Each structure stands twice: as structure tokens, then as C-alpha cells.
Amino acid sequence: MTATHFDLDPDTAARLVGDAVTAPSMHNAQPWKFVFRPGSSVLALYGDPERAMTRTDPNHRALHLGCAAALFNLRVSAAWNGRPVSVRLLPDDSDPWLLATVTHDEAAGGDHDLAALHDAVRRRHTSRYPFSDEPVPTALLDGLGAAARLEGCRLTVPSTWHIETVLGLVRDAEHHEEMDPLAQAETAAWTSQAQGAGGTRSDGIPAAAFGPKSSGGPAPVRDFGRAQPVPDRGWAVFEKRPQLALLSTTGDTKGDWLRAGQALQRILLQATTDGLATSMTSQPLEWPELRWTVRDPVAAMGHVQMVLRLGYGPAGPATPRRPVSEVLEIRE
Question: Which of 36, 82, 184, 317 is buried deepest, with most CB atoms within 10 A?
Fold first, then answer.
């Protein structure tokens, strides 16, 4: 059977994209744009270079991860709405910002596993709060590893000694940023509390999502309040032994980044469904001299794309999102 047209009205298209953009992205920059043509068979996903991190993400690896996470949410939403789709990554070499096209394809059939994740799409939030020391069951970790493999990636739980190495690299990355005015300015630009015409800004990391300061040594999360102290932020003791996992790909191309972003979101949604809280850190991956050391030398990992923290604790607050009208263009 050949691919057929999206039988969508603008309201339905907006609902699908509304699910897509709940995905995480570096500094919540939301670096995506969608283009949909009624009557056409294609919904296109573009990266937005105006929302790129030119200092800490100069090759746009993190931008690709964020856009791919939104793409996975779109796949989940399409499955839940009974719209089987096929996805083509990087379909046009002449347009590097066209990251994917999504085509309604009845031949693809329904995907019940994807549809089952829909309930977690809007419940998933990054938590920069302390987790308990209760270990995540091996069965759940195995399930998250299977989720990564479904997207062509690998999720590895590092050994105890390597977890300490990764946490040390996170601290090293913080010191790198402290010594780099351009990196500091970039982070500050996405964590400001600037007000727009409609009230609080619709992107970036708000102070409410910083989480508490650590009172027992370095925290296993990125401290966005490190350079911008927030009054009455509060203190807390974080878990003694953070439970980390490393998401990796065989290669390190744009296609690998797009697969990794989809795997990342699949893992996060599955973890949310399983009752886990999650956070991510890309700090040591933002500095080439640190990134290679994140790899666990005793595991065949390839290239690490994200460090995840898993556990039991508060889900974390929702962060703002730009309205769908800003990220979806409907072309007649």
C-alpha cells in the first residue's frame, strides 16, 4: 500500500505538534520548527539556527538531540491518534536544517507500544531535586535499555568507579564554564527571568526549575543558579550514590544524533511510565577535552550522547513552552 495524505485539519495538526514540543532541549531553547501543508503527505521538522548554542554546542549536536526528542513525541502522538507514520531522517542534503519528514503511511500499521507512552508525554519533567537512595530495579533498567535499542542506540549503566569519574567530569565542566565568559553569557541568556509582553518568557529555564542548592557537596545535576543566585531557593541533601546511565551511539554523525534524541525521549517516557524521576546533564559532553572521558572504558559504548540520572523522587515542575502558533507553520 502506498503512503497516503495526512487527513488532518489545522486543529488536529496543532494538537500533534503540541505534544511534540513538550520534549526537552538544551536550556529549554526549543530549537524546532514544523511545517505542514493541508492536503500534502508530509509534515516537516526543521532545526532553528536562531536558537542554537553557538559556544557550547557549536556543531549543533544538542540541537539535533532536542529536535529528535520532539520528533519522537510526534510519533507517539500520531500513534495515539491512530495515524501510522513513516519517518525519513535528513531527507535533503541541500537543506541541512531539514532534519526529518513524517509521512502518514497506512502500510506502517499501528504501534501500540508507542501509543502506550502518550500518557507520559505531558507528565515527563526534568527533576533537579534529590532522589532517594532506593535502587532502580534491574528489570526497569533492562526495559530502558530495550527502549534505547528500539531506536538503534545503547543505554549503559556504568560501574561504580566510573560513576565517580562522570560526576567529577560534571564538576570539571562547571569550572570550564566559570572560566569562559561566552559560555557563562550563553547560559545566563537562557536562565534569565526577563518578562515579555505576555508575561513570563515561554522558553529557557525558570528559577522554579533550578531545584535546591546542595548542602552535602556537589549535586549530581546542573546548577543553573550557580552564576545567578536566586533568593529563598533553599537547600537539600542529594542522594549519596546517584544512579546514572549513559546513552551512546556507534557513530557520531547527524543521523546518529537524531537517533539518539529519539532514543533519549523513548527512555524518558518509559521511565516516567515506570514511576521514575529523571534528569539529564550534557555538561561534560559540551567540552571536547572532557567528552571522550565520559565513555566507560570497560564497555563497548561508541560515542556518549547524554548522561541520564534515574531514581525515585519529585517529578520536577513543568517548564514553559512556546505556543504552537510560533513553532508550526501551516502553508496553504
Answer: 36
Are 249 and 138 in contact, with CB atoms under 8 Å apart?
A: no
C-alpha cell at 201: 518568557
All residues at 6 or more sequence positions from 181 whose CB lies less than 8 Å from its CB, including other chains: none
The three-class DSSP label of residue 180 is coil
Q: Which residues are CB-neighbours of 264 under 8 A, at least 6 positions away?
A: 24, 65, 68, 69, 247, 280, 305, 306, 308
Determine the 3-state secondary structure of 50 from DSSP.
Answer: helix
The dihedral through the CA atoms of 288, 291, 293, 299 has a sign that is negative
Query: And the C-alpha cell for 82?
Result: 491512530
pLDDT in tens, 59-68: 999 999 999 9
Q: How far apart, in whole angstroms, are the C-alpha atoms of residue 279 and residue 206?
A: 16
Inter-residue contact 271 to 247 (CB < 8 Å): no
Residue at grid coordinates 560513576:
163
Residue type at 241?
Answer: R
pTM for the structure as a whole: 0.94
Sheet holding 303-311, edge to edge: 154-156, 243-249, 303-311, 277-281
Cβ contact 204:318 at 8 Å:
no
13 near 330, Cβ under 8 Å? yes
Residues 6 or more apart whose Cβ sits within 8 Å of residue 210: 128, 191, 223, 224, 225, 230, 233
**Residue 118 grid cell:** 502518550
- Which stretch of DSSP H or E encloses residue 44? strand 42-47
CA atoms of 287 and 55, how far apart (whole Å): 10
Instruction: Tell me the pLDDT tens digit for each residue of 16-53.
Output: 899 999 999 999 999 999 999 877 778 999 999 999 99
DSSP reduced 3-state for 88 = strand
Side chain identity, residue 15: R
